[in-house]
Amino acid sequence: MESTLSPAAPIARSPRPILWWVGTFGGAFLACVLLFAVWAKAIDPPSFVDQIHTEGLDFLLPARAVALIALALEAGLGLLLLFGVRRKWVLIPATLLVAFFLSLTGRAWWLAEHGQRNAAESCGCFGNLVQRTPAQAFWQDLALLVPALLLAWVGRERRPPLVPPKRTLIAVIGTLAVLFLAWKAPELPLDNLATRLRPGTEVSKTCVGEGAQRVCLDGMIPELRQGEHLVVMAKLDDPAFTKAVDALNAYASGPGPALWVLTSSTADQQRAFFWQWGPRFQIREAPPELLRPLYRRLPRSFAVKDGRVTETFQGLPPAVQASASKRAP
Fold first, then answer.
1. pLDDT in tens, 7-16
2. Whole-angstrom Cα distance, residue 234 to residue 124?
3. Which of 252, 254, 302 is nearest to 282 (CA)?
4. Positive or negative, the Cα torsion across 15, 21, 23, 25?
5. What is this structure's pTM?
6. Same domain, 222 and 88
7. Is the same domain home to 178 and 30?
8. Contact status, residue 317 vs residue 231, Cβ threshold 8 Å
């Protein structure tokens, strides 16, 4: 006799509780903040290394090693949270990381308020991409990180497995990709992404500081507001720049747009440079807090027309290099 039993129907999964969705959203939001910070630092690792050294976090390991460990930790936790892995072995390190970030920005704010740090100095975990004072960095990090972190603890899933294999493997692969990007980033043409200087930037809005201490790029070179100009950012004692003085002088003697060199070198260094090299171009001084977010490495150049950046160049502008080629025997 044939069996009349029908195949077993698939067991329907019960819908996720609302608290699970709330916690998942909180974890995903926190992940996005962490991963944006990772991206900002991975595409400009030298700046991140400088920040680690400035904060004194390289007391046990070299700053480069600390930078790689920090990037791996942030990227790994961010990816795991993005994929919904909200286990204690993820959330506890994430909580400690958020507390560490807030302690850094809080300390920087306290130092700035007591005159032990420049209040105009950019601060926080977003590299050169976001201009923030120490006070802004603390309050913004508090608002972005803490509520999302608290929500991430809500409605956690407790069913096995404790370590989801597929999602964890993808997070590990993603973390390795971030470290590879940070390794190769200095060689890649990412300056327009990694800095605040790119085509379309207005020199009058490229500023640092607040109130009476606010300094803008067009305040250093007021002539940039009108006409066409070429600006080279450089260290005057950098051999890569001093080798280019003849090319710069050759261009400055021609009929092209006005040439300016913008530097954070001291007055004594400028005086020594003038007497040694006899520049025919004009040199203007700018505070390092204004210049540092505009480059990954020096020299870096840009063209300006009527107060707006039209093009950027790593190294000398092509017009300057062409002048050097014409003068070469």
1. 555 555 667 8
2. 25
3. 252
4. positive
5. 0.84
6. no
7. yes
8. no
